């Protein structure tokens, strides 16, 4: 899984947030199976008092993260819709609210429990997310990777 990052957040917490957010950019919807590299975006930027807590972080592609800068979520949602010429800013804002409420602590607890051990179950979980999304895009009702 291609990701971008730094040392300001533990790798296991980063992974838990990526999994919580479905391994896709919350802003534009592009995902790792589309070739995107993920990073984390602060819903409330550091420059405006935002924290590094999971409730203030969302998965996003590098393009959206660097384009957003310190714009408000409302302003940037509108820009994303205008750029992609599809969707509605309210859909993006609803996704952000949904992910903001999602607590990756269960995923994080599983990762911490297995830390230093086999990460295969998390890779498998990522593969299931990707397969499910591909099935949704193609309309395959039977599902993908089991």
What's this, in brief?
The chain is mainly α and 146 residues long. It has helices spanning 11-20, 62-68, 73-84, 89-101, 105-114, 120-138, and strands at 38-42, 57-61. The chain has a two-stranded antiparallel sheet with strand order 1-2.
Measured as a percent range, the helix fraction is 40-55%
Distance between the termini: 19 Å
The main sheet orders its strands as 1-2
Shape annotation: globular
* Count of helix runs: 6
Rg calculated over all Cα atoms: 15 Å
Average of pLDDT: 78
Order of helices and strands: HEEHHHHH
Low-confidence stretches: 140-146
Number of strands: 2
Tell me the strand percentage band.
5-15%
Tell me about the largest β-sheet: 2 strands, antiparallel
Q: What secondary-structure arrangement, pairings included, does this model have?
A:
Blueprint: H1 11-20, E1 38-42, E2 57-61, H2 62-68, H3 73-84, H4 89-101, H5 105-114, H6 120-138
Antiparallel strand pairs: 1-2
Can you characterise this structure?
With 146 residues, this protein is mainly α. The chain has a two-stranded antiparallel sheet. The C terminus is likely disordered.
